Amino acid sequence: MAPKLYWILASPPARAVVLCAKQLGIELDLIEVDLLNKEQFKPEFLKMNPLHTVPVLDDDGFIVSDSHAIMTYLVSNYRKGSSLYPEDVKQRSLVDQRLYFDSGTLFANHIRVCIPILYKGAKTISPDLLTALTEAYGVLEEYLQNSNYVAGDDLTIADFSIWTTITNSSAYLPAEEDKYPHIASWLKRMEETPNNDLNKSGGDFIRNVFKSILS
Question: Is the separation of the CB atoms in 83 and 75 below 8 Å?
């Protein structure tokens, strides 16, 4: 039985898990959650994830929430030894640090922009929020100065997390090549990976939503 993943295409963390699973050759049973109609607040969903967020993985009754935890679980449980989450302690620590950067800084700043726009009726983005996200872009640019991917010269799960976040945040704050040449080169590299169309579809959806609200 394939593990069930509760997700939506527009969510960067949810897309990251699907991209990771596809890269690993793991089949998932994808179950869409209607966030706008508040399905995430139904008792059966809250029982799985009291934080009422996607993605959530149900692997034969074993529940894992948070995309970063789900991806490390998928590699460790199904594809141990994969370079997507290397077993070498130092390499893995670097991947973990980039995952924490996404969770605590990059995605955190992105979601602070999204919540007022998508759920609270805001029509403009606070300059302070854009400043914080711009600073996060600057950190990512530094990370990529001497490597092909965010945690070294090999593709890892950290790339999926950060790639999907940047894809969505580019809807209102593009990572311009003249300001962020290393990010731009990395994005082109990521677009050459399998399943780029999946990530692009999610990003295009968010871009159209922001365009309709902010125009």
Answer: no
Dump the DSSP string for 165-211. HHHHHTTTS---TTT-HHHHHHHHHHHTSTTHHHHHHHHHHHHHHHH
- % of the chain exceeding 90 in pLDDT: 98
Residue 141 and residue 58 share a domain: no
CATH of the domain at 39: 3.40.30.10
- Tell me, what CATH number does 202's domain have? 1.20.1050.10
For residue 36, what pLDDT is reported? 86
Collapsing DSSP to helix, strand or coil, 11 comes out as: coil
Quote the CA–CA distance of 163 and 98 in Å, as a whole number.
12
pLDDT band at 117 (very low <50, low <70, confident <90, very high): very high
Encode burial over 136-163: b for 16+ CB neighbours within 10 A, e otherwise. bbeebbebbeeeebbbbeebbbbbbbbb
Residue 84 covered by a domain:
no
From 11, 67, 82, 169, the catalytic residue: 11
What is d(CA 126, CA 111) in angstroms, rounded to the nearest whole number? Answer: 13
Q: Count of domains in the chain?
A: 2
Cis peptide before 127 (omega within 30 of 0): no
Choose one of 61, 79, 97: the last residue of a domain.
79
11 is catalytic: yes
Residue 113 makes CB contacts below 8 A (sequence gap 6+) with: 125, 126, 129, 130, 133, 169, 172
